């Protein structure tokens, strides 16, 4: 299964913005019932999200970000989303396996009629979430990947967000390692809030990719292209991977497991990485 590279946030209270997002090139759209919706608008936004799911669920992968588990809204959000065909649920400020188990138990109950299992995506935004990332990732089989929220995280640990992202290096790496140890899909990187700085977005996305992330949260359609380019193999990389796979498999048949391909040393780990690139490009 190919997972999304781009997850576009849209306010669950805005019908027109939702429509535009669904017709964008984003791999997945997150209908947001949390931060993008005022408290007094929670009920009406839930109805708008319901309408959007019924109308567009067959056109685009639609994820619903519910309110966090310390609010009185999350269970209504969850039941609304899954009763109307949401492909997945994003859970903000995820901090414990117990909380995720509670979400997954209800998710399983309300998604019994769906053809595919619902995706549950914990959004890790606090120090506690980072500390317990592995137990969160392994809380239930419905948890397919995690996402990182740097803005709330920086608020929680009282750090300054900088251009080079050094203050987030440990947290990002922790999510990548926890995801791999748990056997789930590589995590989704945080949003980049500066819409007028494409170079900054590209730099941050490349850093996330280097660390092991395989996608990014975005807040505007203009960010889609840069994210897709970063998290997709280039044709040159695909061609090299194909050459590596073909050459190594031919060599292996002759009892050789260490060769050179286009000046690149190739052994089993290099071959396996190239094989993954070829598989992902199909």
Summarize the structure.
This protein has 282 residues and is α/β, with parallel strands linked by helices. It has twelve helices and nine strands.
* Straight-line N-to-C gap: 11 Å
Strand order across the biggest sheet? 6-5-4-3-2-1-7
Radius of gyration: 20 Å
Rounded mean pLDDT score: 94
The residue ranges in which pLDDT falls below 50 over 5 or more consecutive positions are none
Number of strands: 9
Largest sheet, strands/sense/barrel = 7 strands, parallel
By DSSP (H or I, 4+ residues per run), the number of helices equals 12
Order of helices and strands: EHEHEHEHEHHEHHHEHHEEH
Structural class: alpha/beta
Global shape:
globular
Which percent bin holds the helix content?
A: 40-55%
What assembly state would you assign to the polypeptide chains in this entry?
A: single chain
Written overview of the protein:
It is built from 12 helices and 9 strands. The termini are close together. α2 runs parallel beside α3 and α3 runs parallel beside α4. It is α/β, with parallel strands linked by helices and 282 residues long. It is globular, with a radius of gyration of 20 Å. β1, α1 and β2 form a beta-alpha-beta unit. The strands form 2 sheets. It has a 7-stranded parallel beta sheet with strand order 6-5-4-3-2-1-7.
Can you lay out the helices and strands and say which pair or pack?
Layout: E1 6-11, H1 15-22, E2 28-32, H2 42-56, E3 61-65, H3 74-83, E4 88-91, H4 97-110, E5 119-124, H5 127-131, H6 133-137, E6 147-148, H7 150-157, H8 169-182, H9 198-211, E7 216-218, H10 224-230, H11 235-253, E8 259-261, E9 264-266, H12 268-281
Helix pairs in contact: 1-2, 2-3, 3-4, 11-12
